Amino acid sequence: MKTKSKSSGFLRVVKLAAVMAMFAAPPSRALTVLFPPSFTASVIAPLAATLALTTDIPSQVSVSVTDGNGTWARNFYDYGTNHSEILLGFRPNQTNLITITVRDEYRNTFTYPQALSFISSPLPTNMPTFTLVTNIPALMEPGYTLFRVSDQTTGAAWVTIVDSSGEILWYGPAAGIGGTIGPIPTPSDVVQMTNGNLFFPETDTFGFEEANMLGQAVETWTAPTGYQVDSHEDLITDHGTILYLNYYDQVIPDFPTSATDPDAPTETEDVTCGRPVEISYTNSALLNSWSLIDMFDPVRINYLCFLIPRYGIDAEHANAVVDDTADNSLIVSMRNQDAVVKFTRSGVIKWILGPTNNWGAEWQPYLLKPVGTPFEWNYAEHAPILTPQGTLLMYDDGNCRTEPFDPPVPDQDNYSRAVEFSIDETNMQVSQVWEFSDTNSDRLYTSALGNASWLPKTSNVLVTFGFISYENGTNSDPIATNATVIRLKEVTHTANPTVVFDLKISNPENTNTNSAGYEVYRSHRIPDLYSHLAVPVPNLTVQNQGGQPLLEFTADPVRTYVVQVSEDMINWTAIGQALPDDTNGDFSFQEASADQISAHFYRVLTQ
């Protein structure tokens, strides 16, 4: 019997076992693989494959893989006779020998006598070069780094996952992931869902897609009519919705015609505007939308408002949404206002974070006042997020580092950074509490893209310099002056940050003077290639050991397992936590007081 319930924020997954006065010895049964296992590499994601096999009795599967770099293993905790497992972690251009072991509920094992062989294909010849500049594994956040890298010259793009050494362990061409539904647009974020699948915007008219790690589409969401998806944001909230951004046109009277000439006339203009949109995760129904141009100064501009032809006159260029559940508000980044803003779901403005120049009188009460030193405003920022401390962390591209009509900072003299602000909403003040820019030894400037991610186990920050045009004032590509390169840097969250991971993505052998280089919109550290969802314990057994019940089961060692006892299956009492017996996911628990009652039930709660 299996039941599920919610308690204290943990998914509690239950397996029950009745315990009587006498215990039977575990039966002796055969355990074998009935037919030769099948192994099929994914066409879309060449470093992923499916292993299928059948056993004569219910079992779990483990694999051990030996390649040119050593041996790695993976345990699977689903329980049955027919198994289909996605295998992840292969390196490109390697001969892999795969040993398969199955285990029944009493921990009897059978190893298939013949190792399977899989020769992984080399990386595509048109992929960029990944160069590890720095890595200090002992100081790094554990896990892997997920991102989408795009060749701006050809349009080719790959969703990619690398390990702590910058080696590619998973990739798929963005145009192929999801099958025939369509390519992942640019710019685009790609995130890992709690079930281990990938989630991303599809196209401006389609919506969103979920793909498994074989690159196959498993779910889609269609945007409501008139609220097409712009690919800047793809946020799944924890209350059953999806937040994204929609661009639309609106006629604005008395709009400035220049960001460089203060005496230029104003005109009635058809302006590109942005609005956060919220739809149902269940059925894509439109739930909310918020017009930014109607809430904030409609005629304020910065230097970027006229620079991207495909957006026309772009008043805001909203590029990120944060769901602040602490007070039922939204935080939105407006790149072409040099502003991060917060407002309630009913549309009441709470604050404006950014340079205070040129805001109209109506918005003056909402402007945060800077306090403390050092302090520098955000300019053309990307991807603000709330940290566990309640501070606001973002990537500050730094375009121009001033407002019209003061002289802008030239790109070759500029720099980009990760920056963290603390906001005092009561006193309407903001202070800068941390930054990383490395301007003394490795000054990087990106005119677009980028993010800064808080890493939960180490409190490090992963910084995506995703569109570098200048390194220390020099073109990032010595051959092509317009080409951009990428640096993914993980740094410590300290007063003087230490770089513990630095991966450069470029084409060092470039000979094309017209090359545009490469870009990454955002990157994310994911804890594993696989998900670790709380699932029912499938093989709980109870045996007599020295007159006391011994509970044994196999489960995901990432989680903890609490044992409870009951006489009536209504009232339950926790009696302890099952402890791991090994690193393979074997757990056991022995109750010392079972002789106090003649019959009772056990259940295991997965947390």
Question: Layout of SSEs?
Answer:
Elements: E1 2-7, E2 10-19, E3 38-41, E4 49-67, E5 70-75, E6 80-87, E7 95-103, E8 109-111, E9 116-119, E10 129-135, E11 144-151, E12 157-162, E13 168-173, E14 191-192, E15 198-201, E16 207-211, E17 217-222, E18 230-236, E19 241-256, E20 266-280, E21 286-289, H1 292-295, E22 313-314, E23 318-324, E24 329-334, E25 339-344, E26 349-353, E27 369-370, E28 382-386, E29 392-396, E30 417-424, E31 429-436, E32 444-446, E33 451-454, E34 461-471, E35 474-475, E36 485-491, E37 499-506, E38 518-526, E39 541-545, E40 548-554, E41 561-566, E42 573-577, E43 579-580, E44 586-590, E45 600-606
Parallel strand pairs: 20-22, 27-31
Antiparallel strand pairs: 1-2, 2-45, 3-4, 4-5, 4-6, 4-7, 7-8, 7-9, 10-37, 11-12, 11-38, 12-13, 14-15, 15-16, 16-17, 18-19, 19-20, 20-21, 23-24, 24-25, 25-26, 28-29, 29-30, 30-31, 32-34, 33-34, 34-35, 34-36, 36-37, 39-40, 40-44, 41-42, 41-45, 43-44
| Sequence stretches where pLDDT stays below 50 over 5 or more residues | 1-13, 17-24
Q: What is the gyration radius calculated from CA atoms? A: 28 Å
Major sheet attributes: 7 strands, antiparallel
Q: How far is the N terminus from the C terminus? A: 18 Å
The averaged pLDDT comes out at: 92
Helix content: under 10%
Beta content: over 45%
Number of helices: 1
Number of strands: 45
Q: What oligomeric state do the depicted chains represent?
A: single chain
Structural class: mainly beta
- Outline type: globular
